[in-house]
Protein 1
Amino acid sequence: MWASGSASATDRPPRSFSENLHMLDARHVSEHLDEVRAQLARRSPDDAALLDGVAELAKKRRELVQKTEKLQMERNAASDGMAALAKSGDREAMQARREELKKLSDEVKRGETALSELEAAISEKLLGIPNVPHASVPDGKTDADNPVLRVVGEVPKFDFKPKAHWEIGEALGILDLDRAAKLSGARFSLLFGAGARLERALATFMLDLHTREHGYTEVYPPFMVKAEALRGTGNLPKFEADLFKTYRGDPNDKDALYLIPTAEVPVTNVHAGEIIEADELPIAYAAYSPCFRSEAGSYGRDVRGLIRQHQFDKVEIVRFCAPEDGPAQLELLTGHAENVLKRLGLAYRVVEHVTADLTFSSTKSYDLEVWLPSQEAYREISSCSWFGDFQARRAQIRYRPEPKGKPRLLHTLNGSGLAIGRTWLAILEQFQQKDGSVLVPEALRAFMGTERLVPAK
RNA sequence: GGAGAGGUGACCGAGUGGUCGAAGGUGCAUGAUUGGAAAUCAUGUGUGCGGGCAACCGUACCGAGGGUUCGAAUCCCUCCCUCUCCGCCA
């Protein structure tokens, strides 16, 4: 099932970075240009074109590094000479030498400046290039090509026309989209009574399942983060328009914070810049958070109901592991997300993203799609992804394979476990009854204190 | 928000212009000693980049960014963060 990279992966291991291919660092790209181009072409021709110029820049950089370091070496040697002169107290000799060294020093500075500019240009280019698909990912042009891997649970049959969740929710008096719009505009929601309680129950239920049965450590992260954190996960620089940005006084504040689009961002960056010992892996975190998305470019889609909101709740599961464990960890994590649906008794299916449907940072992804009777369709409720070392490189998250060994980039994974708003609406739709009530899933009854939602009188 | 003190290697901590990638200690690793362990002694112990088959060599990094200087962990500027006291506050 898992084709392990392409043949050239083993031909010649790259010197400075991890051996796998899910990486876009300048050295790897310039040494395996055709191969990386072919991999990106599986996503789209446009993505492959993003590589243009990278190899040349990398080569230029190497030359400049060598030139500059040679100058630095000369300068350092000369400075040692000056130290000796200073000791001898020969002021005139020092003065003369100083003139000469000034020139050398200026040259060093020019080199250093040119080098840092070039490196900035390279990293700007690389930051805009998406991850390469894993060899096992099927080719495809749109999400319609995504293969269905399995269908789980029984799609409910109704002897009446099933209502949409917003109709059910409003009739029960637990959902009020009109008043939400009064407060905050379109794509916000307002829950009352059992509706609000259901939202809270789902968050608690999911966190309990992941922490007690799946071995995750619960994390409560900040809901606002720096641009740096978003760069680590791959949301920036390319997807700024999808985010809500906050500022204090100055709209152009360099240190402006962003509202998180998912807990993936703060939780993945928990270990940014760190070196983790091998015996600490895998690390597994589960976090509840609200998520904020501007939904730019989605006008006209899912305008009704709770499917697509500017603010929604989600429990996110995140894993850090050694590279060789990546594939197995993706299966494991996906299973954990699926368990939530199974425990709730919701009918769903699992699809795999084809190459063209992969998100920017992902090397392989599965979506869990829940059945929505009102739409007679499966809709995404969780996306489970393996990022290879793509995020780890951007956020500099490494581990030490051997106690004294060289650090290597680790692999990151995450998945929704699950999107709470969509779970909420799926429960209303799948468990709706002819009389307008909604059966509460067994697993939630203790939290909800009832087995049935009925209109508040 | 006001006043003050600080940010140095895994940790503690010295270092106010050249001999500092950085004393000393702790921790850790290896070896010696021991029946075994403790204690003791010796040696070693950061990361990135460039070169090299390698041993290794070079270079950069002492919160971040800029400046002064032939030369900056050390001097100057800006910013960030932490701590203490005061004020305010869920």
Protein 2
Amino acid sequence: MDEHDQTLYFRLFNEIGILEQISRTFLEVRLPDGFIAPHFAVLNHLIRVKDGRTPLELARAFQVPKTTMTHTLAGLEKGGLVEMKPNPEDGRSKRVWITHAGRSFRNRAIADLSPLFGALAEAFPPDTVAQMMPELERLRIFMDDLRDRVS
Amino acid sequence: MDEHDQTLYFRLFNEIGILEQISRTFLEVRLPDGFIAPHFAVLNHLIRVKDGRTPLELARAFQVPKTTMTHTLAGLEKGGLVEMKPNPEDGRSKRVWITHAGRSFRNRAIADLSPLFGALAEAFPPDTVAQMMPELERLRIFMDDLRDRVS
DNA sequence: CTCAGATAGTGCGATATCGAACCAAATGGA
DNA sequence: TCCATTTGGTTCGATATCGCACTATCTGAG
């Protein structure tokens, strides 16, 4: 591995870091006070994937520590955007259900993002993005597997 | 914009968020106690780009609020990895210089990452990554410009 | 030169992130 | 069945992030 290649990989992760930073900030200024990107992301996941996930499933989906997810869910519950109910199949566990208020919150946020998507669609048409996705997903899966494999 | 396209853009930013999360964690478990990814990123930037940047330049490079950069630099300075000197061209400002210890720290971190790069190079050869970079950079620049343009 | 506004950086308070330690429930091998 | 181990979740404490407000300095119009 020569220095040039190494630099390339650094630049890749650096771009990802900056993109995360920009897109998160972009979303957060459009959310009501007291709510941040992870709140939206969880609501979105509950709708896009499915309701009734356990906290641990959510933590794994976003690759965050479970204590972080506990905290995020507490914020959502306090805001009445989700309900936590016991998991009938496992006494240790809970299941997270999105409320009507949660759906409204998510839909409003999406509506507030539509100017972004409009502008984005001009510079990055859906088929362009669709071409980028497989490699990004492959990279994410690779990195995920790697945690166990590398020293 | 139909729902399918919207979902596509969400998935894009979601992948970016998860990738950031995984790669940051991957790095941080390999850094000495008390240091985190932003510390490494700043040191790396000072070497890759150039020494003697101002805190504000660094904040802009990483798209973080300047108070966050103040905090990160304080950590680096406390650890003896950078030196902050007054900026002779502007009495309000400072310039950040990396120390010998800072260079060693960065080189050690890179050495600890080499197993990752080795594994990565198999699944994602440099030319594959090189193909991904321009679109990611273009997206980052687009998002950056967008902050002013959209509602 | 003057001063109103812009800019660089910091202090502070509120909240987020996350590792360590912990509890309770589930699992599975003897 | 029993109990050692694993697993889901929370609590707690340390540190990070970031918006707001502030100071010091610079800049430019007049």
Protein 3
Amino acid sequence: MRDSVQKVALDLSSKIESGEWADGYRLPPERRLAAEHGLARNTLRQALSALEQRGLIVRQVGRGTFVRAESRPALADGLLAKMRNASPVDLIEVRLIIEPQAAALAATRASGEDLATIEAALRQSVLAKGTAEFEHWDAALHLAIFRATKNSLLVDYCEAITSIRNQPRWHRLKQRTVTPASRHLYNRHHSTIVTALRERDAETARKAMIEHLTTVRDHLVGAAS
Amino acid sequence: MRDSVQKVALDLSSKIESGEWADGYRLPPERRLAAEHGLARNTLRQALSALEQRGLIVRQVGRGTFVRAESRPALADGLLAKMRNASPVDLIEVRLIIEPQAAALAATRASGEDLATIEAALRQSVLAKGTAEFEHWDAALHLAIFRATKNSLLVDYCEAITSIRNQPRWHRLKQRTVTPASRHLYNRHHSTIVTALRERDAETARKAMIEHLTTVRDHLVGAAS
DNA sequence: CCCTCTTGAGCCAATATTGAACCAATGTTC
DNA sequence: GAACATTGGTTCAATATTGGCTCAAGAGGG
């Protein structure tokens, strides 16, 4: 057959680009690949060389051939970093998507222990003296709600959000936007949410969270303008 | 076998992280572990050394090897790494929260260019020959929808989801669940969503996405049982 | 016939794994 | 306390696996 090289190169690269062979995956040995494709090893090696030149794979004598893991680590390291660069408006938009649903889930799934943790965080946030302390317990409250959903991905998400909100640039923004009046309002919102959770009222919890985050967003854009 | 070290290291660490080998548990002697895994002791020792370096175990001459207590908090590694351990059900639950809203946002914000990209991805996914190729264009389609929201956080989220779905363990699951019939159904769903986007019909786009992901979830749990 | 692609085989160098032996620290038994 | 067994720590040579490379012969289209 003519041009087997291009054919097998296409086949292999599609396996890589589709994710079937993920980053860091170790390809079968050349000799086996050649046998599986019904080709001589030399021919298959030409295909591999092409992929290597395109940067898709890395070959190491005595170790094997690997899907190049250069693209993914950049994402792994960069995901949080990229999220940290998100704008406040983008962030609150995402929170408005996720957190009402999370609150609704928490209403149906929270254990008694979860509720106790949530209520403790609420009490502490009401008692908090400074802005920093209030923010701490506010974050703890939201996190406790996410834990109550029993969904580890949601917990991860909330921790990421918290880490974003703990950055210095956000601190400055908060200090401009969090006034005694707004704190009082936020406490009322939080209280409504927690009450709804205790009464297993998913719909009320969702709506209360929407109202809460909408208020936060309006304060943010008000402060920005 | 060639990469026995990594394999057995993964096996052992999963036993620890899953809790099967709790904190303080004493591992079987190296010689026994090696025999059970069909490896030479030296090879298995390399795997143990890797775990030791990661802080998962402690080795004591003459006493044995122990799962390290307090190992968990010290391992604040990567957000993405943690997300990768999420269960399929957790993942689809989060997708059901976010993606319908994202579709609704995309309906109001997508540019003509965005719509062209989305429709191209849809066409490619319909034409795709294998499961891998279909998955590739399916992911591209969802990503294009997220890009159309103009919210960088949502795009980051979608890329994280895609990277999770590209893992080998997910690949096996997909190969069991994606049949020609389900692919046909998914194509219909995708088509409905894209049409709604083009017509700027946010509500229809949201509902179509909900129906789509609900179907995917049902296929998943159906395959699991 | 000529040219290119492909094959099959062999050899080399780098790496991985094995298998065994011996040492050192700890625990157990008498 | 002494003898013995168990366990991790270390070293080393032998073997297996793997990619890097070369070359002569075959296959197939112009």
